[in-house]
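User: Structure with 2-phosphoglycolic acid, tokens only please.
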Amino acid sequence: MTFSAKIVLNNWMRRPFLAANWKMNKTIPEALDFMHAFLPSVAGVRDADIVIAPPFTSLFAIAERFVGTNVSLAAQNVFYEEKGAFTGEVSPLMLKDAGCDFVITGHSERRQYFHESDEIVNRKIKLSLKHGLAVICCIGETLAERDNGKTFSVLAAQIAGGLAGVAPQNLVIAYEPVWAIGTGKTATAAQAQEAHAFIRKELHSLYGDDAESLRILYGGSVTPENIESLMACPDVDGALVGGASLTAAGFEKIVKFTRGNTL
Ligand code: PGA
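Assistant:
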């Protein structure tokens, strides 16, 4: 199984990993315009992994723009069967075919609106990895769960269920507290670090020392203004960015969050 040479997954350095999740935004011409501005602007960034997840309709249309660049293409969702009578669904094989290297699984919007359980997330992850797609697996608690002191038990259950029988290779975790998504309410750096440290501890019990090399992204109202303080947390290894990734200039600033990246 070969993965894109541009992505160095699970390296011990845990180099920054910045992913854009466009959700249900942008037509094909809008996606092409974004790429036209964005790709040259980050072409000199060598010390971060950069991923963009457009809607399904734009994947194939923009895939060729990524060839030979330092940016990888991701899908926002996938189905857990290879092919067959599953109207409206898209398989990992089709995503590879369209030019994807990554897929996002278990996003809270899929869990909330489309009733995705940890078991479904688990099936999606396994089939995606089998077919050579690296996975960004999202987990996170709702506000009610946090208020009821259930943050850690929810995260533990999502990890145990979503990652059962899944090897750590080609896996990235995204911690996205549901109350922080699209609300402008970012978790404080301390809240993010506390959750990320807990997640890493859980990953340790699943994967042993391999947990040290797994990237754990933070997601939820990440902006060019707060990226640096979040990334300063020892267990925050990157970000999954929704709203602020919709403009090339905004996502460029997030990718270049450190001084060294201002190329
Ligand atoms: P947001 O979305 O940055 O708009 O809060 C993040 C996400 O849902 O991945």
